[in-house]
Amino acid sequence: MNAHVSPDACPALVLNADYRPLSYYPLSLWSWQDAIKAVFLERVNIVSYYDRLVRSPSFEMRLPSVVCLKSYVRPARHPAFTRFNVFLRDRFSCQYCGAREDLTFDHLIPRSRGGQTTWENVVTACAPCNLKKGGMMPKRAGMWPAQTPYKPSVQDLHNNGRAFPPNFLHESWMDFLYWDTELEP
Q1: Which of 95-104, 126-135, 172-181 has the lowest mean pLDDT?
Q2: Tens digit of pLDDT for each residue in 35-62?
C-alpha cells in the first residue's frame, strides 16, 4: 500500500476472539482511529498490519489491518427485525419479480386487513410490485412471493451476506473471510 494513501482508506477488519468476523454483512470494520484506540485500551490483539504509518511527535505506529478481540462477544441469537435484515434475508431481490432496484417491503396480509409487521408477514418487494399488489391479499392480487417469509437466524443472514462481498477487500483479510463468489486479485 502506498505511503501517500489516506489513513481513512485503511479500515481494520474486526474478528471475534475465535478469529471469525463479528459480522459479514455489513462486514465488521473499524476506522483506523477506533482500531488504534482499542489497541491502546488493550481490548484487541493486532493480527496483521498495513504498510502505512501514522505519526505524532512522540509516537509512530503501523496501521492495523486485522484486529482480534481479546474477549469473546457472544453473537445475538436472533437478528433484529429491520428493513435491512429483511432485504438481506430476501437476498436484496423483489420476492415477486426478482428486481434488485427500488426496494421496499410488502406486508403479505396487508396492514389494512390486520396484517402485522413481522418476519413471517413481510417480504422484499420492488416499488412497482408493491404498488400493483396494494392492499390486496396475495390470492386476489395473483402475487405470491418466491419464498415463504420466515424468521431468519443470525447464521441465515451471515450466509446470505457472503453472497455480497464488499467492493474493497484487503489481502490481509482473506484468511478470515469466506465468500460464495470468486474474488478477483
Answers
A1: 172-181
A2: 999 999 999 999 999 999 999 899 899 9
3-state secondary structure of 157: helix
Long-range contacts, stretch 165-174, CB < 8 angstroms, 24+ apart? 166/26, 166/27, 170/13, 170/50, 170/65, 172/13, 172/47, 172/48, 172/49, 172/50, 172/65, 172/66, 173/13, 173/65, 173/66
Read off the C-alpha cell for 52: 502505512
pLDDT digits (tens, 9 = 90+) for 95-111: 999 999 999 999 999 99
Among candidate residues 130, 85, 73, 137, the one with its CA nearest the CA of residue 110: 137
Cα distances from 161 to residues 2, 5, 132, in angstroms, run 30, 28, 29
Residue 8 cell numbers, joined: 481513512
pLDDT at 182: 43
Give the residue from 33, 30, 31 showing the smallest Cα distance to 14. Answer: 30
104, three cell numbers: 421496499
